[in-house]
Amino acid sequence: MSDSDSWLTNPKWIKFDGMNTVSSSSSRSSSSRGGGNSNTSIAVVVALVVAAAAVDVVTLIEVVVVVVVLVVVGVVVVTAVVVIVVTAVVVIVVIVVVVIVVVVVVVVVIILVTAAVVVIVVVIVVVVAIKEEQVVVIVVVVVVAVVVIVAVVLVVVAAALLVPSQCRNYCNDNQNSCGDNTITISTYTCTKNDRTSSDFCSGTCNIRIEIQ
After folding, report:
1. Closest to 117 measured CA to CA, from 155, 84, 152
2. Is Transmembrane found in the keyword set (predicted)?
3. pLDDT at 43
4. CA gap 104, 124 in Å, rounded
5. Which pLDDT tens digit goes with each residue over 139-166?
6. pTM to 2 decimals?
7. How far is CA 156 from CA 7, 109, 149, 153, 166, in A?
């Protein structure tokens, strides 16, 4: 091995001294040893190492955290917008197309809630009456509870059946009552177009509020 090929006399390493770099180049032509690609790779690695060393580790972590947070927030916002839009579309479809189903669900919920409240009250009263051996109180409470539940069922069902009918009749009998000042009552719409049509009332019933 000649002196020209010695690492000591012809160094090709890069020494790191803190943030500074010191490089030694070969006195021989890189082409003569086929080292062009090797030198390029070393230069790229050095550039990357220097760039990484120039950035504070804490700052780098903060940047990564900020990027991750921004991505997560973006995903959440997009998801929220999609959910809101889909929910709005579903609600509109339900209101327009399946109004009867909604009415039935509301009726059932009202009846169930009322029945649950009545049953809870009855259970409490019956337990107290049993401890006090008040048989008459138990009978009266049970009868009253049954009457209340039946009455609520009848009233709610009647309202669900009669309101649309009355709304339809109002629309048919008061064709000139439609206007901008309206409120939605049920499943029929009072329109100002084609008043002679048999389908005068459809959709939701908007009855005008007369302000005296």
Report:
1. 152
2. yes
3. 67
4. 30
5. 777 777 777 777 777 777 666 665 555 5
6. 0.32
7. 98, 10, 11, 5, 15
Residue spans of the chain under pLDDT 70: 1-71, 73-74, 77, 80-107, 130, 133, 135, 157-212
Over its C-alpha atoms, the chain yields an Rg (Å, rounded) of: 42
Burial class of 129 by CB neighbour count within 10 A (0 to 12, 13 to 18, 19+): middle
Q: Would you kindly state where each structural domain of the chain is located, as residue ranges?
A: 3-54, 56-97, 98-208
Task: Write 203-210 long-range contacts (CB < 8 A, 24+).
Answer: 203/96, 204/95, 204/99, 205/164, 205/167, 205/168, 205/170, 205/171, 206/178, 206/182, 207/167, 207/170, 207/171, 207/177, 207/182, 207/183, 208/177, 208/178, 208/179, 208/181, 208/182, 209/181, 209/182, 209/183
The alpha carbon dihedral of 116, 121, 127, 133 has a sign of: negative
Question: In this predicted model, what pLDDT tens digit does every residue of 128-146 receive, in sequence order?
Answer: 776 776 767 777 777 777 7
Contact 181, 209 (CB under 8 A): yes
